[in-house]
Amino acid sequence: MINIAKPIISDEEIEAVTEVLKSGMLAQGPQVDAFQKEFAEYTQAKHAIATSSGTTALHTALVAAGVKEADEVITTPFTFAATSNSILYSGAKPVYADIDPKTFNLDPEKIEEKITDKTTAIVPVHLYGQAAQMDEIMEIAQKHDLKVIEDAAQAHGCKFKGKKIGSIGDLGCFSFYPTKNMTTGEGGMVTTNDDELAEKSGMVRAHGESKRYEQSLLGYNYRMTDIAASIGRCQLKHIDEFNQKRNENAEYLNEGLSDVEGVTTPEVAEDTYHVFHQYTIRVASKRDEFREFLTKEEIGTGVHYPIVLYKQPYYQNLGITGNCPEAERAASEVISLPVHPSLTTNDLDTVIEAVKKAANELL
Questions:
Q1: CA–CA distances in Å: residue 315 to residues 29, 91, 163, 212, 279
Q2: How does DSSP classify residue 272?
Q3: Element of type H or E holding 111
Q4: Which of 24, 27, 49, 329 is surrounded by the most beta carbons within 10 Å?
């Protein structure tokens, strides 16, 4: 079986964790401090605040940005639920704008029509590892005095016009879940160039404390452990080579699948450096049958994502609605194929042949 994802854990990470366990300093400590500094430098941001997950990073950033009950936050319906769930945690309501069918990211032309006097922020998602069109999004936000919180959970090392994702918006949020381009097991990070937002983020993730035992706002226990941070520091040293390998694998797949009728390969937008967290194709019809065929051929696949968020039962129960036809069409057509750095050329050839076989029989 060729797996859809495979975290790369070496002796370096194992030794780093062992050293932390021997030190006795297991909670947030010197490893977290060092990881924050190194990650800030890597993302070209002034500050980085480590959290317990990508979801808690998003919630931390939203609270720090001042998003509150009865506010509205514009985002995409075509992503993992954590993005919108974090908005709900903040007491706000997610409002959905449609996507660009070529990049799967928020379409800037669809954002402004969703802005009301309740809108306080925009949360673009850099889906699959490709940057959203941040110039246009930032211009809209500045025009309407809105905060921009980048959901960069899938975009470690991604760039837009030479700038690292996570350093462009008011805040950026990363996930280090095991399937991501780099991992800490579970973990997240908030990045920002704003001193005040950094200070608030640090308080939100640690019980609202401005200093030890002095609580200045309502906070949470969203801290990262030194165990997780020690893994992250090792992973960060290799993220660029991981991303380069993902790009090479994506190029190989693109070339091999370029002439398969009924299959559309990923498109990289101009001025972006795509880090291919996912390599996602579109199939013209019979997506579920197509995926079942690949499974029988022992090719791991994923559907990211099969249901737009406003059609999720819980969101419908809340009365949250949307009208995003491009997102709905994408949800019915996408299949993610293996692209991770551990794949061999033989693995990639096997994936290509299986996709061709599926297309010939089903499309």
A1: 38, 14, 35, 39, 28
A2: E
A3: none
A4: 49
Rounded Cα–Cα distance for residues 205 and 219 (Å):
6
Exposed e or buried b per residue across 6-40, where buried means at least 16 C-beta atoms within 10 angstroms of its C-beta: ebbeeeebeebbeebeeeeeeebbebbeebbebbb
Burial level of 249, CB count in 10 A (0-12/13-18/19+)?
A: buried
pLDDT band at 363 (very low <50, low <70, confident <90, very high): confident
Structure tokens at 255: 């070339």
Which segments within the chain are labelled E, that is strand?
47-51, 72-75, 93-96, 119-123, 147-151, 159-160, 163-164, 171-175, 188-192, 209-211, 214-215, 263-264, 272-273, 279-283, 334-337
Distance of CA 282 to CAs 5, 181, 246, 340, Å? 19, 22, 19, 19
Other C-beta atoms lying within 10 Å of the C-beta of residue 363 = 15
Sign of the alpha-carbon torsion through 234, 235, 236, 237:
positive
203 CB-contact burial (10 Å; exposed 0-12 / middle 13-18 / buried 19+): buried
Sheet containing 272-273: give its strands across: 163-164, 159-160, 272-273
> Hey, is 136 helix, strand or coil?
helix
In our burial notation (b when 16+ CB lie closer than 10 A, e otherwise), range 83-96 reads: bbbbbbbbebbbbb
Q: Around Cβ 276, how many Cβ atoms within 10 Å?
A: 26
User: For a pLDDT cut of 70, what percent of the chain falls above it?
Assistant: 100
Residue 260 is encoded by which pair of tokens? 């398969």
Angle formed by the axes of helices 11-23 and 226-257, nearest 10°? 170
Tens of pLDDT, residue by residue over 73-120, are 999 999 999 999 999 999 999 999 999 999 999 999 999 999 999 999
Please give the C-alpha separations between residue 144 and each of 108, 147, 332, in angstroms, as whole numbers.
14, 9, 34
> Tokens in use for 293?
């065929």
